[in-house]
Amino acid sequence: MLVILGKASSINVRKVLWVCEIIGIPYQLEPYGSGTANSVESAEFLALNPHGMVPVMIDDDFVLVESNTICRYLAAKYQRSDLLPAGPAERAQVEKWMDWQISDLNSAWRYAFMAIARQSPLHRDAELLHRSCVEWNHHMRVIEQHLETHSSFLTGSQLSLADIVIGLSIHRWKSTALDHPSFPNIEAYYLRLSELPGFVAHVANGYP
Questions:
Q1: Is the distance from CB of 193 to CB of 153 less than 8 angstroms?
Q2: Which of 12, 82, 133, 163 is the most buried (most CB within 10 A)?
Q3: What is the pLDDT along the chain (208 residues), one digit of tens a residue?
Q4: Omega into 55 within 30° of 0, i.e. cis?
Q5: Which of 74, 12, 5, 64 is nearest to 36 (CA)?
Q6: Which Pfam families would you find in this protein's record (predicted)?
Q7: Which helix (H) or strand (E) holds 30?
């Protein structure tokens, strides 16, 4: 059985678990990280991922890290070309959103999320907080404008890995107490995502 090391509160672990749910892959989640009995700083864990981050996927004797890469691997292994197309142009449309999410979007929200949701004492600079909130909403506006001219999902009429990673990011935005502009296209899109298998368990599961 596929083994995932991580915890249900981690947004990156939840990406992988949601993919497993949608594809129908049996898995075992072994809790690792703060608040669990298993440390990501242990020698055992660092031998699997020297970066000390979750998730870690173990598929028989194959170990893989980085959440978006794990999602790509699972879609490819189970031949889910609906989630990750085989054609280079179509696949690039999905992967550009995944890359944007893990880089630009994550960088925009990180300070605001740590200050507001996590109440981190290391994130108390008012100017940096304001800047992060503005950048976060700017990036959400990119999604809002994209959805004006596209169909049900980000890259077409059917769900792809792009929707899974962006959907979790939208949930984090909606769950964080900052000023939210009115984005009706995002609201309608989020409602469509809420009808998918695993949404309650892995997206709207009480964690931002």
A1: no
A2: 163
A3: 999 999 999 999 999 999 999 999 999 999 999 999 999 999 999 999 999 999 999 999 999 999 999 999 999 999 999 999 999 999 999 999 999 999 999 999 999 999 999 999 999 999 999 999 999 999 999 999 999 988 799 999 999 999 999 999 999 999 999 999 999 999 999 999 999 999 999 999 999 9
A4: yes
A5: 5
A6: GST_C_3, GST_N_3
A7: strand 27-31
Residues 205, 199: Cα–Cα separation, whole Å: 8
Give the whole-angstrom CA distance, residue 176 versus residue 116.
7
Considering the domain architecture, whether residues 164 and 68 belong to the same structural domain is answered as: no
- One-letter amino acid at 205 equals N
Please count the helices (runs of H) and the strands (runs of E) in the chain: 9, 4
C-alpha 46: how far from chain center: 22
Residue 15 belongs to domain with CATH number: 3.40.30.10
Q: Which residue has the tokens 């249900």?
A: 8
Tell the residue number behind the tokens 């594809």, with chain if given.
Answer: 23
DSSP string, 56-118: EEEETTEEEE-HHHHHHHHHHHTT-TTTS-SSHHHHHHHHHHHHHIIIIIHHHHHHHHHHHTS
Residue found by looking up tokens 């990011």 in the block: 169
* pTM beyond 0.90, yes or no: yes
Cβ partners under 8 Å of residue 205, min gap 6:
8, 14
Task: Let me know: does 17 contact 27? Beta carbons within 8 Å.
Answer: yes
